[in-house]
Design goal:
Length: 260
């Protein structure tokens, strides 16, 4: 076995890191605006299960993650890398500069969208993005730009001063449904090669799940993958059995006790 000769530390450098996006735990909590499911508990479970990074998208409309979530996780999980997804707007970026996460991924954001739909258009919004990157880097925050796998966006990310790009894998994820993936995989692969030539770190994410992950995780040169929806969805089923059993047992215990 290759790794048996090497320390775990070497694995840390050569294996792709997993960022777990816990936004949708907050989506459930915000349905009642109560205390649970608790985001800090969720982040700790992810970390204990092997997540290298906790990813949170503080959206302008605060539909899931709230300001106190980012500050709370940052102050309670001191040895954990936090990645904040942020729109390029000063209100959110000011918060990021106060939180000082390990990294910020700048994303396009539209209120009416269900999730981040496409990558940034860096060439169009160059000045705004350039200023945001400079400001974040002044706070020692690593900045990545969420882009489609296109050469002109990669080149623009480099010129704007980004440390990293996060390639949008949403198109790949949707194509797997039609078994027509090779063209998009090539596009992603070529984007990784180009970005590395520019000296950019390459992350990827969006729509990745248990059936489509292996082809992306086999691409050489990717540093981090950010995955949310599929993990949280699977967690519902892996936890549902226990959750029902525990409730049933509490009900039975109480109803039996009431007989005495
Ligand atoms: N990366 C970015 C930049 C995103 O906006 C999202 C969605 O919030 C993800 C990764 C995770 O996508 P998914 O929830 O589909 O795994």
């Amino acid at each position: 076995m290759f790794f048996s000769k090497y320390s775990l530390d070497i694995r840390r450098f050569i294996l792709i890191k997993l960022g777990v996006n816990i936004d949708h735990i907050a989506t459930i909590r915000q349905q009642r605006r109560g205390k649970y499911p608790d985001l800090l508990d969720a982040a700790l479970i992810c970390k204990n299960a092997g997540a290298d990074i906790i990813t949170l998208h503080l959206r302008e409309d605060r539909r899931h993650i709230q300001d106190h979530d980012v500050f709370g996780i940052k102050s309670n999980m001191i040895n954990t890398d936090i990645n904040m997804e942020c729109a390029v707007v000063s209100e959110i970026l000011d918060i990021a500069c106060k939180v000082k996460p390990y990294s910020v991924c700048l994303v396009p954001e539209r209120r009416e969208e269900l999730t981040t739909e496409g990558g940034l258009n860096i060439t169009k919004d160059y000045n705004k993005i350039y200023k945001a990157i400079k400001n974040l880097k002044d706070y020692n925050i690593q900045v990545s730009l969420f882009i489609d796998p296109e050469y002109e966006q990669i080149e623009a990310a480099f010129h704007a001063g980004a440390d990293a790009i996060e390639l949008h894998t949403g198109k790949y994820a949707n194509l797997t449904l039609n078994y027509d993936i090779n063209e998009e995989l090539n596009r992603i692969n070529n984007a990784v090669i180009s970005a590395i030539k520019f000296g950019l770190k390459v992350n990827a994410g969006h729509g990745l799940d248990y059936s489509n992950i292996s082809k992306i995780a086999s691409i050489k040169g990717i540093s981090e993958l950010n995955i949310g929806f599929s993990i949280i969805s699977k967690a519902i089923f892996s936890g549902l059995y226990e959750a029902v059993k525990d409730m049933k047992s509490l009900i039975h215990k109480s109803s039996l006790n009431s007989l005495y």
